[in-house]
Amino acid sequence: VLDSQYGMYVWPCAVVLAQYLWAHRRSLPGKRVLEIGAGVSLPGVVAARCGAQVILSDSEELPRCLQSCRSSCLMNRLPHVPVLGLTWGRVSPELLSLAPIDIILGSDVFFDPKDFEDILTTIYFLLEKNPHAQFWTTYQVRSADWSIEALLYKWKLKSIHVPLHSFGADKEHLASSSLPGRHTIEMMIISLAQSDGT
Predict the structure, then answer these.
(1) Burial call 32-71: b when 16+ CB within 10 Å, e when fewer
(2) Residue-wise pLDDT tens digits, 91-112
(3) Model's pTM, two decimal places?
């Protein structure tokens, strides 16, 4: 835990997503994984330690977050994991030149509703390039009024809810935080909605 700024803190969602990766560790060797909004990069580091080929990314406008990604890699003996500046909603040369990926990770990226469409625009772009890939994401329920359902429909994406108990992440201590308030965490897997040709 570094400090409680956006990308400089191990948020409860990161711990839950890391638990999901650990529960699926036997399927990770050789998988190509991109973590977006990585910050401290706990999920990406776990995936890399489990044998995945990982790329970490955070906003190109947040150099401290990108440095945090690099520091996490060094502390976990992963000096060769690439760290890219990718800003949600922006088509950049780095985004265009990404190698094929199998899994996109995002823990607590659905934090501010003003970013939701930019995130899903980026996810849609990545899934269009990698139609068999999935976006594994955890998020904290902060408001009953916040929803991405309409945006999923707009961008022709579908989501599957993943119950936390199905991978041992429903324990109180797992997603606890020293920050005030309740920390209800949810997980979903987002993929392209399959066209049935009609």
Answers:
(1) bbbbbbbbbbbbbbbbbbbebbbbbbbbeebeebbebbbe
(2) 999 999 999 999 999 998 988 8
(3) 0.88
Closest CA to 13 of 103, 106, 107, 104: 107
Alpha carbon distance 194, 109 (integer Å): 24
Count of Cβ atoms closer than 10 Å to residue 6 Cβ: 16
User: At 69, is the secondary structure helix, strand, or coil?
Assistant: helix
Cβ 32 vs Cβ 4: under 8 Å = no
Check: CB of residue 42 under 8 Å from CB of residue 15: yes
Please provide residue 124's backbone torsions phi and psi, each rounded to the nearest 5 degrees: -60, -45
Domains contained in the chain, CATH given:
12-192 (3.40.50.150)
User: Could you give phi then psi for residue 19, rounded to 5 degrees?
Assistant: -65, -40
